[in-house]
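Hi team,

As requested, here is the filled-out complex form for the zinc ion run. I kept the field names the same as last time so the parser does not choke. Let me know if anything looks off before we queue the next batch.

— J.
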Amino acid sequence: MKPGFEAIIGLEVHVQLRTRSKLFCACRNAYGASPNTQTCPVCLGLPGALPVLNGEAVRLGIRLGLALGARIHERSTFYRKQYFYPDLPKGYQITQGPVALVESGSLEIAGDPTVRGGDGPVRIRLERAHLEEDAGKSLHDQRPDATLVDLNRAGVPLLEVVGMPDLRSPQEASDYLKALHRLVVFLGIGDGNLEEGGFRCDANVSLRPRGTQALGTRVEVKNLNSFRFVKQALAHEVARQTALLEAGGAVVQETRGWDAEAGETRAQRTKEAAMDYRYFPEPDLPALEVTEAEIAAVRTSLPELPEARAQRWRATFGLGGEEALTLLQDPAFADYFEALAAASGQGKAAASWMLGEVSRTLNERGGGIAAFPLPPEALAELVRLVGDRRISFGTAKEQVYPALLAGEGRAGDIVTRKGLAQVSDRGAIETLVARVLADHPGPVAQFHAGKTNLRGFLVGQVLKAGGGRLDPGVVNEVLAEGLAKGGSAPHAGP
Ligand code: ZN
Ligand code: MN
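And here is what came back:
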């Protein structure tokens, strides 16, 4: 085994739940409203106001738990976590403890072969996932002389997903986060918007000598709000700790923040300054009880999970792993692909169109697949025309597809109207091949003398002579026969 240190990483992810109202009051749960317009005595923490638990948040928590193969506790409890901060109006956060709604479970990711013994998938275990309320937001950049507070977010429901320290590299951390994000978005648990804070990640990182079991001193890196930052911040933190330990120093247990501009993590507070939250049971809320029947109802409502979908596409369409995951970037995009594959009967080709031309169009136009003008059936006709060798892929991409997007009618009609149909008639192709061989005695002779890569040149000449409409498969066959017969300039030596 390689000497040196091994990175041990565990992630805590705060997922905002997609409910209509907040966790304990009827205020709207929606991003972007004018500051402090979505508040009431409950989420402002006014004296005498009493929280009432939102049942939809509970169902969403169960939904994610079941998708992760976790245990759902039929009885879990709420605690108060006390700390003082201007954006926390009650002076405490209502969170779950000591029993959380969701316990254990796991998520499969592709293991990082550079740090694992072999390759192949690994299961990352979860410790628990608990319900809690979000805090408000301090706005430091609105005025030079003051910090403003917006309490619209105070009381928004969160599910905090606490992973075990099973990750072994920044790459694995990023893969895990993406897998969890996919699940959240596909199951409709949250919108997963990282920029708006809908999916936030903190990471615990420590190092230990390879081959040992005890965990080293850990550092918590806070607020990693993009997949790229997670990878960069963890890579930086692993390198920083490695340098410290190799120089004979010690890692200090502390909280660090990621400075994206400087490209480094910075100390925020040490363990000595860490807060004592003085947790105690929330007296205003009864224990959360869910019945077998309620759990079963959520279970029956689960759709096919993204990982299972990727697996099915690999098996039935022969897609690669990366290809399948890219198609799963967004549920509507994945559904479109599924419809295109079904309507064209060609899964592999449908995947290429989605990841090629369709993605290019979406990048240019914006608005995502919802704004894409072609229904899957219309594009499927084009995919089939290529598959049936009625037109070449080049013609489809360069001529028919733009005409389809421009609303010039159905693919088949465009091909007919513009005379784009591919020529696969052997007789016509034989004539062209014979002519090209006769016109290029030099290259033909060089080909026979061993410069076999001139074959490509000759194929190109034939295709060109056919105006780009010849079936390349038939051209290749006929040309091979022509060359085997010695071409039309059999003995012109080099
Ligand atoms: Zn409220
Ligand atoms: Mn939390």
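Two things worth flagging: The chain has three domains: 5-292, 306-418, 426-484. Residues 22, 25, 27, 39-40, 42-43, 155 surround zinc ion (ligand 1) (CB under 6 Å).

Thanks,
J.
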